[in-house]
Amino acid sequence: MLRARGTLACLLYYCAIMSFLLDPGFWEVASFVVTALALPFAIFLFLYEQRKERDSEDEEAYQLLQNAYSDFLKIVLDNPDLQLRSALSRTDLNDEQKERALIIFEMLIALFERAYIVSYVPDMRGVALRRWHSWDDYMREWCRREDFYYLLPQLLRGEDEDFADYIRAIAEEERADKLFNIGHRE
User: Is the torsion defined by CA of 34, 36, 38, 39 positive or negative?
Assistant: First the structure.
């Protein structure tokens, strides 16, 4: 008898659920809930995941560029006779040394151009701006070197025009600062 009551209760419960699910009013309310709550949440979640993925890709691109710059510095270290990390450029290089320096500078310009194309966006903010500042600092550091500065017109032939304009502006700023500082020493 108890078993029959349990089965009957289960059957009534099942019928109640089925009549509830078959009620058009239930589906109308459910569609409003989905439209009002679940759909905006799903859109938000989708956009959040897209942004996370984009940030991850940006970080990966930044790391690849940083690794490329580290590899470039190893090449500089492998050529100590050129003294490319000193503040002053050498004027007594022989033809072979001049050619190696030119090739190294060409590699550097290619790396800077790649960083500019991949990372630079006008009106950057936040992490992107902080990442770009490191590249801007590298460019400024190299533009302070007279040999690099004077080779820029040759190095920038055929490069991206926006990048060329950007690094020329940096070079002129650094040159002006250098000349200003020389003129104001006591």
Answer: positive
- DSSP line for 129-164: HHHHHHHHHHHHHHHTSHHHHHHHHHHTTTS-HHHH
- For 102, the token pair is 């030119």
Going by C-beta distance under 8 Å and a sequence separation of 6 or more, which residues neighbour residue 135? 65, 112, 115, 116, 119, 120
Strand stretches in the chain, DSSP E? none
| Cα angle for residues 129, 155, 57 (degrees, 5° grid) | 30
Q: Residue 68 and residue 179: Cα distance in Å, rounded?
A: 32
Burial of 42 (0-12, 13-18, 19+ CB in 10 A): exposed
Each residue's pLDDT tens digit, 117-168: 999 999 889 989 999 999 999 999 999 999 999 999 999 999 999 999 999 9
